[in-house]
Amino acid sequence: MMATRTTTRLHAVNTCGEEMSPSAEEKKTTPPSSPSSLRNCLTLCGAEEVGKINGYTWTSNGHVHGYAPLYDNFEKFYLRYVYRRVRDCWNRPICSVPGATVTLKDRVTKDYGWTFQFTGTETQCINLGSYNYLGFAEASGKCAEESIETLRKFGCASCSTRLELGTMPIHDELERLTAKFLGVEDAIVFGMGFATNSLNLPSLVSKGCLVLSDEKNHASLILGLRLSGAVIQIFKHNNVKHLEECLKKAIVFGQSTGEPWKKIVIIVEGVYSMEGSIVHLPEIIELKKKYKAYLYMDEAHSTGAMGKHGRGVCDYYSVDPREIDILMGTFTKSFASAGGYIAGTKALINHLRIYSHAHTYAASMSPPVTQQIITSMRIIMGEDGTDDGEKRIKQLARNTRYFRRRLNQIGVITYGNEDSPVVPMLVYLFSKIGAVIRTLTTRNIATVGVGFPATPLMQGRIRFCLSAAHTKEQLDYVLLHIEEIADTLGLKYSRKPRVPTKIEYYSDNETE
Known about the structure:
Layout: H1 24-27, H2 35-58, H3 73-81, E1 101-108, E2 117-127, H4 142-154, H5 169-182, E3 186-190, H6 193-198, E4 210-214, H7 219-228, E5 231-235, H8 240-253, E6 264-269, H9 281-290, E7 294-298, H10 313-317, E8 326-330, E9 340-344, H11 346-355, H12 357-360, H13 367-381, H14 388-410, E10 422-428, H15 430-442, E11 445-446, E12 448-450, E13 460-465, H16 472-489
Parallel strand pairs: 2-11, 4-5, 4-6, 6-7, 7-8
Antiparallel strand pairs: 1-2, 3-9, 8-9, 10-13, 12-13
Helix pairs in contact: 2-3, 4-13, 5-13, 13-14, 14-16, 15-16
Cofactor: pyridoxal 5'-phosphate
EC number: 2.3.1.50
Region (Disordered): 13-38
């Protein structure tokens, strides 16, 4: 399996967020100085330099004289000679529902990662790689049954855009339900989560506008901003102080022409998918009001997964969702479906119904996909007459805290907030990403590795995604093997004092 949601870096900026960044003590920590680790380190650094020489001296991009190179030769070198050697750890085919467990199709390579052949065997693993936060990725049950019924009624697709013949009653129902769930006036839904950002931002900002974007924002946001023509300024990750400095300068100096900005928009994520950090929402709302800026928040990883009622970061902080001008989210994670939404005022949504490229040109959401969202959302809201949704939300929160605390106790370095179900474990070296994934797979544990170019070259990590579907026994099994390989592979980088106290796993009728 692979990390489908990668972060594009505009430039390197040191992070200052309290939740994501390691402590001062851990900042001093470097990978172990064993001979093998030093060799890996020197190999990667040497590979970078050789790649540069290769790009500048031995090969040509084939571009016309006077033009900038069309592609980066180092990345080409890296993919060919480094990534290829561990390519078996990514893009792994599955042949089951990606629930608490997942079945991988076994494959081998005889040419060092250039090609793969299936062996005809399968391996069932505990699944810590899918965004199945609330455990709705199920082959049976109410969601599956109602989706099948909708498929029989409406077919697979409308084969048209929403503005033409692609709008069905089920789409209108989902939009009303989404607005009700989030506590805002209106909502509009789209068939693809990535396009929800990249194709709607150009409808909201344009030339003469300034966007202040968190440095860890997702690639879909960055692409949408580039398409918009707006000026983009990056602020340090989750650093409210730096954001305020940027706002002050923007208002004082304005555009390079001397004119004021048409509008200033702050763009953040609820939960950052590569860092596991949670946005400092209350402080950012204060800044937005103080400097009369707009706030756009991507809740792809927080809707359903955060807050007492599963309504995202606003619910988590007990903030009125109407304080955020543009709420964006996806249905691919907590709702185990596909697509995305934008929610806010009726005026905002009416504007997008006319000017959004994702609404005007893209095919509408598939009916059974739409039904999966409706059914799971009703369960979360308790409209199905059960407390199943509430139990799932509590189970996810319980699993998240337990797993994170146990990892910290083991001595590995993790990024992010204690309540974030996205848990990055730092392994630093790219070779260690491959070693961890391969070793865990032999122990029937499936997870995701994240390395360059999604992260800086020497900041590789293993990203665990927790789910309400996981049991304590499954988590304990995973933690047992993580502790074992942390000793073998030298992953215990943390210098924080380890608390020997037993980490409790609270049941439904217990509280912390």
